[in-house]
Amino acid sequence: MALNQDTTQFKVLIAGGSLVGLGLALAFERAGIEYELFEKGDFAPQLGASIGLHPHSIRILEQLGVWEDIKNQVVPLQNRNHYDGNGHCFEESQVLVEINKILQRPIIFMERCKALETLHHHVKDKSKLHSQTAVIGYEENSQGVIVTTDDGKEHHGHMLIGADGIHSRVRKLMADKISATNQSLGQEISEAFTSEYNCIFAVSRNDPANPFLPDAMVHNAYHKDHSAVAAAGVHGLVFWFLFIKASGTTRTPDCPRFTDDDAESSIQKYGGSLVGPGYTVEDLWNARVKSTMVPLEEGVIKQWSHSRVVLMGDSVHKATINPGLGGNLAYEGIARLTNGLVPLVKENPMPSVAELTEVFNHYVAGQLPRAKTVVDISGQITRYEADSTWILKFASRHIVPWVSDRLKAKLYASFSNGGPWLEYLPLPATDENLAKSTKLSKTGPVLSPVLIAATITLGVVATLWNINR
User: Fold this and answer.
1) Is residue 108 part of a domain?
2) pLDDT at residue 437 in the model
3) What is the reported pLDDT for 414?
4) Are 56 and 244 in contact (CB under 8 A)?
5) What is the pLDDT of residues 272-302, one digit of tens each?
6) Which domain holds residue 350?
7) Single pTM value for the model
8) How far apart are CA 75 and CA 233, in angstroms?
9) Does residue 214 fall inside a structural domain?
10) Looking at the domain assignment, is residue 29 inside a domain?
């Protein structure tokens, strides 16, 4: 097939229009790089999902001009209480307040659909965004890449980004092409994720006259082989999660898909579990606006790119959602990839495959260590909150509460400040010294990423977990 296009205009094709895809669209638009984005569904569906945004992602959203609109919709989280299965509060924490003091940015929770609406709104040229248009195939030739969508059309570009989630079609297509010459690698990519826990997540009404929990509050409930989190990050709503250990471990592409009946059955079994003072999982369920049940996949794939194709977000690294770092990790990926691509295209408006591969390799080299840390720590946190072992249960009740909130916040700040930003856009005034301090930190002692990330759940328990694995 011949490419009928302006060969002087480099174009990126993006598969997936969720938080990662729309974030990429804004990043490319601000950089003046031509792109087209294809989303198989609608751009902001209400699925009952929420998104936690951490300070290092908020910094990127500030650079993209999006944060102010998001800020006006949320109540920054401040207090976090931890309860055992009997409803006893064994830790009252102000670590979220301390984090805000140090980083001058909060940690927030909001409806995922509202975050998507905001990102979509800020894209100036909506003609480049194609909803209800799924990528079903791609081919490459010496000039570029040709994507086929489910409406039978072909779209021509020079690079394809698979930002289409855990069930990534682009990842499967890439793995199939790799399998033609390296079958074992293709299989490793297809089977990279495992699932040992399931999750029901939902948005429920939080009646101001009789709220489950006050605004800006987070409740964590620890039960044997299951746990729950509720966060009041938007006035009148509560975002909550029920995490349940599955009967066994499954592996992609055979991780389960759940129906509404599966969710109902799980609520019948675990609905009596307390989440906070005076309310249960079932109470939240009965007040729900929308809910979904999913497996919690975990893993990092072995190869992230092939020729002109590169993967991002959940298509390449998937973490359990207890600490809320998966979406934030994806925004780190946006920064790392575009930081390499923008100067390349400026220098060479039509980069070669070899030059693109160099950018991809640099992106992976920067992203892979953070991805492995976040995936590992997130999984440990899931097991920690589900009282998976006696040592984890002991640590949560008798060790972690004695670690000061200030220390936890300082360690978290080191982790957060280690995230990248968009180097081709001005840094916000809040971060005027960040670039300098980041350079200096590379020559000094490095804090254990395990210890730093463990403090996201307010403790040092990850170290104990590693000792006893």
Assistant:
1) yes
2) 62
3) 94
4) no
5) 999 999 999 999 999 999 999 999 999 999 9
6) 11-192+299-467
7) 0.91
8) 5
9) no
10) yes
Are the C-beta atoms of 53 and 28 separated by less than 8 Å? no
**In-domain check, residue 216:** no
Q: What is the CATH number of the domain that holds 22?
A: 3.50.50.60
Question: What's the number of domains the chain is made of?
Answer: 1
* Distance (Å) of CA 362 to CA 32, 139, 299, 336, 342: 21, 24, 20, 8, 13
Low-confidence ranges of the chain (pLDDT < 70): 1-8, 435-469
